[in-house]
Amino acid sequence: xxxxxxxxxxxxxxxxxxxxxxxxxxxxxxxxxxxxxxxxxxxxxxxxxxxxxxxxxxxxxxxxxxxxxxxxxxxxxxxxxxxxxxxxxxxxxxxxxxxxxxxxxxxxxxxxxxxxxxxxxxxxxxxxxxxxxxxxxxxxxxxxxxxxxxxxxxxxxxxxxxxxxxxxxxxxxxxxxxxxxxxxxxxxxxxxxxxxxxxxxxxxxxxxxxxxxxxxxxxxxxxxxxxxxxxxxxxxxxxxxxxxxxxxxxxxxxxxxxxxxxxxxxxxxxxxxxxxxxxxxxxxxxxxxxxxxxxxxxxxxxxxxxxxxxxxxxxxxxxxxxxxxxxxxxxxxxxxxxxxxxxxxxxxxxxxxxxxxxxxxxxxxxxxxxxxxxxxxxxxxxxxxxxxxxxxxxxxxxxxxxxxxxxxxxxxxxxxxxxxxxxxxxxxxxxxxxxxx
Length: 437
Ligand code: SF4
Prior knowledge:
Elements: E1 10-15, H1 19-34, E2 38-41, E3 50-55, H2 60-78, E4 84-89, H3 90-102, E5 108-109, H4 115-121, E6 142-146, E7 148-149, H5 160-164, E8 168-169, H6 172-184, E9 189-193, H7 210-218, E10 225-228, H8 239-246, E11 250-255, H9 263-268, H10 275-288, E12 293-300, H11 307-320, E13 324-329, H12 347-370, E14 376-385, E15 388-393, E16 403-407, E17 418-426, E18 430-435
């Protein structure tokens, strides 16, 4: 029997950016542990002598955070606190040559699809048998499931296709096997993620196959909730909603970034949809799944956005009453189509518009939360904090949405369990309640 010896090197992986990057880090960690490395995730004091930073290159703020993190670790290397420093992920994919010049302390830079090369650099093999055996870094009862890589859309402001390439769907069988492995290890909730979720299957099966994938994942024992993130509104496959209405495992929740609601801005963004088409789509979605929670994201300050355009967006948010809204400020990204036009909306105007939109949403969110008082919601419990157990309803995705706070006094709740909660109080982004036994 081959005796496995843990290598003397210790590796700490640092992840920046989105949940898709987190899944890449988890796959990397799984491969490194499969090669007998001791690996930690995001723990600065684990005594690691090797650090791998998985960067984000999406927008200015994210890029700055990635550069600061690299520079911070370069200083640790210069101080002899770490021996080796490697950088991978989107920022590295996009700016490898510049970064090599500017931060020579980094031993090597790798692209978003270069894991085998990174492993080889660490004298490790890429172990195909570990595919689908991903070790998660999230709480043990929920996990992200990345169903595809890359994007074929051409949104004018977006640099993601430059960093992640064209759309590549993962086979249904592979995803189901990964979901089974995750469920076997206690995962009950899956967040389906991609750059563009609704495109699933068009490359691999020459047709949209998200409904088939959803049925197959809903059949996996132990998976109680499946949540859909990053759907694209144009040519939205309504069949998804039939599966959502039919299968209780598919959360009545949809994250669909809309980016804007003013037609001139939507056209300039190359979103292939108008405000009226969006309105009709949202009506169809709510008709088919009446109690659906809709999350969306808007981008303010796009080149040429007038006050009138912004007012149109604000009116649309008031009219549509989304359950969850995120707001980004436009970032002028090289090599995108939008980079060819002047970034003419001043930073302070972008900031002010983002704040006005979130203020409007805060009021909407409070009204919607108050309307939940007196009702009972199935809740999954994530953690205990101070005097509260903290959970989420079907309408709340981890880390981005609302939470449910239940007083811990005289209550015993096992983290990771589902329990019915009677809502007794509400704030803008939080609910309060008691467990119904
Ligand atoms: S769909 Fe999303 S990832 Fe794809 S280009 Fe548009 S904004 Fe970028």
